[in-house]
Amino acid sequence: NVTPTLSNNSNTNTVNVNGEAENSTGRVSSGQNTGSGGRRPRGRPPGSKNRPKPPVVITKETPNALRSHILEVADGNDIVACISNFANVRHRGVSIHSGSGAVSNVTLRQPSGPNGMLVLPGRYELVSLSGAFLPPPSP
Fold first, then answer.
1. How far apart are CA 93 and CA 66, in angstroms?
2. Keywords assigned by UniProt (predicted)?
3. Is the pLDDT of residue 1 over 60?
């Protein structure tokens, strides 16, 4: 048979009728001495590690998304005029990413050059041309 003890010390532990240690607040202690007078242990509790967040899934396409297009310019047509018309109709900015095929009577615009334009008559194979269509500014 266990009898509780009384004391004037506020940190006194007693034993209840079930044989469990009990502090002066009436709480049952776990039997482990924390060494800091009932304070909580430092650090994160077990099992509270940073878990990876689920991936973001895009459910619908936004109007300002970057899209790829393939333009085929017919023989004898001006490439710049065709691309410009395509962009104007769709209210988009343009930056070309790639191109291939034969061109003739090429006019190169060089704003930094003394004349600004270089005309190359004849037929040429287009080796590389690159860019992108840009969305209009957000409202």
1. 11
2. DNA-binding, Nucleus, Transcription, Transcription regulation
3. no
Tokens of 90: 């769709």
In a domain, 46, yes or no: no
84 part of a folded domain: yes
pLDDT band at 41 (very low <50, low <70, confident <90, very high): confident
What is the domain count for the chain?
Answer: 2
Work out the pLDDT band at 24, boundaries 50, 70, 90: low
Amino acid 21: pLDDT: 55
Phi and psi, residue 7, nearest 5°: -155, 155
- Distance of alpha carbon 18 from alpha carbon 21, whole angstroms: 9
- Spatial CB neighbours of 8, under 8 Å, sequence gap ≥ 6: none
**CB-CB contact of 37 with 11 (8 Å):** yes
**What are the residues facing 118 on neighbouring strands?**
108
What's the domain range around 119?
Answer: 79-134
Better pLDDT: 33 or 82 = 82
Residue 16 lies in a domain: yes
